[in-house]
Amino acid sequence: MTRDEERWAEALAIERIHGDRAPVWVAERIGELALAGDEAGVRRFKEIAARLGQMTRGGRQ
Q1: CA angle, 22 as apex, 35 and 36 as ends, to 5°?
Q2: What is the predicted pLDDT for the residue at 57?
Q3: Is the pLDDT of residue 1 over 90?
Q4: Domain, as residue range, for 24
Q5: Which residues have C-beta within 8 Å of that of residue 60, sequence separation ≥ 6?
Q6: How far, in Å, CA of 21 to CA of 15, rounded?
Q7: Record's InterPro entries (predicted)?
Q8: Per-residue model confidence (pLDDT) at position 59
Q9: DSSP 8-class letter at 58
Q10: In terms of pLDDT, which residue wins out, 4 or 61?
Q11: Residues near 53 by Cβ (< 8 Å), separated by ≥ 6?
Q12: How far is 10 from 17, CA to CA, in rounded Å?
């Protein structure tokens, strides 16, 4: 599985678990990771957030 595929799978799982609140949950997670100084984690969750946004707009763009 590629990194892109992993991020899509993570976005789908987060959306399935958190529903309409998924973007808020991801934003909170990004904040927590930023406060902890976890730059790699912030990048990862920003990539997930981008995919959630694409899902809301209706496609992989």
Answers
A1: 10
A2: 82
A3: yes
A4: 3-57
A5: 8, 51, 54
A6: 8
A7: DUF6961
A8: 56
A9: T
A10: 4
A11: 23
A12: 11
CA distance linking residue 14 with residue 27, whole number of Å: 12
Task: Residue count of the chain, please give it.
Answer: 61
Q: Which residues contact 31 (CB under 8 A, 6 or more apart)?
A: none
Note if the pTM is more than 0.85: yes
Give the pLDDT of residue 58: 74
Q: What is the CA radius of gyration of the chain?
A: 11
Q: Judge whether 25 and 14 are in contact, CB under 8 Å.
A: yes
Residue 16: both structure tokens together: 């399935």
Q: How many domains does the chain have?
A: 1
Residue-wise pLDDT tens digits, 4-60:
999 999 999 999 999 999 999 999 999 999 999 999 999 999 999 999 999 988 755
Query: Strands, E, within the chain: which ranges?
Result: none
